[in-house]
User: Fold ParA family protein from Thiolapillus brandeum.
Amino acid sequence: MITVIGSLKGGSGKSTIAFNLAVWLAYARRNVLAIDADPQATLTDVVEVREEEGFEPGVRLAHKELLWYPERLGEYDEVLVDVGTADLESLKQAIRIADRILVPVPPSQADIWSTQRFLRLIGAVSENRGEPPQVLAFINRGDTHRAVRESDEAAAALVSLPNVEFIESRLAQRTAFRRSFSEGLAVFEMDPRSKGAQEWNALAAVLYPQVLG
Ligand SMILES: Nc1ncnc2c1ncn2[C@@H]1O[C@H](COP(=O)(O)OP(=O)(O)O)[C@@H](O)[C@H]1O
Ligand SMILES: [Mg+2]
Assistant:
């Protein structure tokens, strides 16, 4: 299955999600390929750190050119594509070949608006496809403080959008995500009992229920 992790905004957590998913699937012994289609190359950087540190399992990275040869992706159980807007042609091609598109949405009005724009782009690019890709959105970088209701408001806004399925599992804004990433580790490797790891496991289980059997 080809899962594209995308949004129109930087900083929403695309590379973080793509990297954690790649490591999580590798633990589950899936034959997984990650494609970094963002010229910012954050996914490439974190995979390099992981390699330098010698952490196992490793993450296999492929060049974005491969997006134009989707038939070659068939040998992998799972393909993850990290896309940004700096390379619009790659972003559109990723949308064309995606089985599904995963959209991390920080809880702000600006991010809701940009998600609506992204949904329109997906719709326009998918017009010539037989079937449009499944689009899944979830809250990333949610607030941890109970008194702050921004995540709930953003969730309510996402639920009401057409052509997107809302995933209720959220990831909060936690240092565990940032720290693990900078060390080349998945959040569940650095501290499996952290809240971040628990949130991660819940989200991953929704995204890949078959992996858990
Ligand atoms: N849930 C989270 N909690 C804390 N920091 C996060 C979380 N998700 C992402 N980040 C941090 O936010 C920054 C941007 O994330 P990144 O994955 O690079 O976003 P994008 O690829 O969408 O530009 C990074 O410093 C990353 O560590
Ligand atoms: Mg990125």
